[in-house]
Amino acid sequence: MKTNWVAIVAAMTVASSAGAQDKAAPTIAPPAAVTGDGVPAIPAALAAATRPYLEYRAAVFEGWNPKTKAALIGTNFGNTRQLHEVATPMGSRRQISFETDTIASGEVAPAKGDVIVVQKDVGGSEFWQLYTLADGRLTLLTDGKSRNQMGPWSRDGQWLAYSSTRRNGTDSDLYLIDPRDPKSDRMVAKVTGGGWRVMGFTPDGTSALVGQYQSINKTDLFLMDIESGAMRPLGDHKKAISYGEARFAKDGVLWVTSDEGSDFQQLGTVDPSSGVFTPVPGQAKWDIEQFGLSAEGDFVAFTTNEAGVSRLSILDTRTNRIRAVADVPVGVITGLKVAPWGEIGFSLASARSAADIYSVDPKTLKVTRWTQSETGGLDPATNVEPELVTVKSFDGETVSGFLYRPDPKKFPGKRPLIVDIHGGPESQTRPGFLGRANYYPNELGVALFYPNVRGSSGYGKRFVSLDNGPFKREDSVKDIGAFLDRLTTDPQIDASRVGETGGSYGGYMCYASAIRYGARFRGGICQRAVSGFVSLLEHTQSYRRDLRRAEYGDERDPKQRAKLIAISPVTHVSEIKIPLVIVTGGNDPRVPPSESEQMVTALRGNGVPVWHVLAADEGHGYVKKDNLDYQFWASLLFWQKNLLGTDPK
Questions:
Q1: Which of 69, 90, 104, 257 satisfies CB 3.0 to 4.6 Å to 265 for a cystine?
Q2: Are 543 and 147 in contact (CB under 8 A)?
Q3: HEC letters along 519-537
Q4: Helix, strand, coil proportions of the chain in percent (round to 5)?
């Protein structure tokens, strides 16, 4: 006998709505730091019904331990992600950090392998601090107040580079420290702007490559003297050239990914003297998204982003021969790193596999799986595989996205649809693991669509620039209209039951789509959403303000300011008629809580039903499991009321 989860969720929603009359129905209290303003009580039965979908794990590859050859990974066995070591393929995960907040990243010192440095913030503030980790305890290396971002190690594992805003809260100055001796910490270069980072050390450790990120389309390179901090420009800084990753090989060859002379990021070398970029011949017309160098410099492992799917290849640097690693499962690869002994490690996630660790032997191309993450007892092979949907937008531009259809045998007839719009906007939805969202197609028969509108990365620098500035901004919103035209004529989609959601810039798109296409949606869940571009630019953290101006426009220019106001959702709030859930992180440094608060106040003043979920201990996106669970349950109740139920109100 099959369980009718749609009926069960509907019944639980009714019970939740009648909570005052039904005192016997047990409910789930919100987490201590979460306020669910307007959200009905969460039925305990709903939590029980969805529990398996909430108990999946993931393994994020952080790197190799050069002394033990163990893999260092991030994984979540509690409320937050912590560091673990895995000594052998499919071995146990030995937890080595035990913090209340998430460990953002961690690395073992290369060559020496005698110290681990981690990066962690408090409550999602992104004011990261650097610590050493030993015996389960953290020892602070940075000032405890500013925003610090870990950079690369010197080749001998002695020195660690990082950037910090400690001088004035805005500029990302460049620092160097021997983590074994906190007193060795020193500023190497004072800079102007928030986009500076050390990208790699020369083999002898006397110089370092520095990148000044100005926008997704432009990064300027410099060669910096470690002793004096003096910088020499590399290449032509008058050109808009983007550099992704950069590393020096043992022989001093500087390997980079760059879009110079191409629409896509290519793998190649830069002459440290002249700055001339030479791409490796024979590359596919897709972005090279990451690479790793062998210790001897005899090969480069790299991945290509082919319409969202990662393809792993190995370049023989002596012959320029490229070999594809055919046995890697289809999915999305992250965290690619090469061990000192040559093994290539990475994380891989797909629709039917939570993120897990794999390695590849560079000689035989044998693929070895290191972890198999839990999926709450559910069989991940039953998860829906996405299909690629491509449409022509209003101006003939081709845009695409991934559609997850429910099983038509289990859910016959026309099905509801949720459109989930990514943030960035210079980001890309890729066919990875859906996690909690698998519940929608698997148990409720709800289709999910993830669009990559113009301005998304992964499709070349021309495409990612199509929404730049205030005067092109709404073109990406019009792409949503093109997708709706296509999807609502699909014989398996119920055009009368469509909802939308999105986070960050996707939250702006959520508001903007509700304004432009409100008659086609039953409701929306807008998360950490931009509601006013001028208010965002004036109140986002100062270290990122100029970086966002490069994308959205400059509010200090009268003409641009007027357009930014004109396209802001808060300007058109009276045109939003559909019910909304607004989700906010109390410590969000990117989109401050005031962006949500002004929309909640205005919408409720207009009589629009709004639920407001606020987590005081989160930042730009929830990461704590208890908060994520609550947000998921609140979303389910909202969709049952406004999408799955018979009453569109």
A1: 257
A2: yes
A3: HHCCEEEEECCCCCHHHHH
A4: 20, 35, 45
